[in-house]
């Protein structure tokens, strides 16, 4: 998996690319809206990545689930060199080349992609989920384990309770702190692209019938970690 020739390599280039893409984000949608020319609304995918910094490797996984049964329909991985240095707020530039390759390898095209990370809950409103959505045209949303730099009140204790995730500098709501399991710490949901916040929250609740994290994230996290471990047994990764 070669890094695209025009992929940003410096912080200044990455910031300029975020500024270019940000106006293209569509932070709204409604149930039943079309997923795009290649997307199937009956399918929902999760993407995640795992790193081996010592070997300069990143592995991305894409796992497609049936929306109704949450059964795995298809899974793919992509392995390559880390595309960008670690800089907070620019992690998408490290992860997206591998994620795009994993998605491109799918024979099924999901209607929605769930990212382990942020969408509009980002200092420049272009986290991984939003960036991926703009590049692919697919409906995307982000589900993160921490609130990053944003503020929130603790939601009520019941499943489905939520509170606004807000930017302390502007007071803008950029997502929701969502309780997916009773008495368990919340996850942080944000719009990626072509979806509204209420729909994003509803999607996450549908994907968490038993665990704190969405089934999409759980499957993708497990797959990319297994794939990265396998590279240690086949060290001739290009």
How is the secondary structure organized here?
Blueprint: H1 11-21, E1 40-52, E2 57-66, E3 72-81, H2 92-104, E4 110-115, H3 128-136, E5 139-144, E6 162-166, E7 173-178, E8 187-193, H4 197-206, H5 215-231
Parallel strand pairs: 1-4, 4-5
Antiparallel strand pairs: 1-2, 2-3, 5-8, 6-7, 7-8
What report would you give on this structure?
With 238 residues, this protein is of the alpha+beta class. Helix content is 25%, strand content 26%. The chain contains five helices and eight strands. The chain has helices spanning 11-21, 92-104, 128-136, 197-206, 215-231, and strands spanning 40-52, 57-66, 72-81, 110-115, 139-144, 162-166, 173-178, 187-193. It has an eight-stranded mixed β-sheet with strand order 3-2-1-4-5-8-7-6, sandwiched between helices. Strand 4 (110-115), helix 3 and strand 5 (139-144) form a beta-alpha-beta unit. The termini are close together. The model has no long low-confidence stretch (mean pLDDT 93).
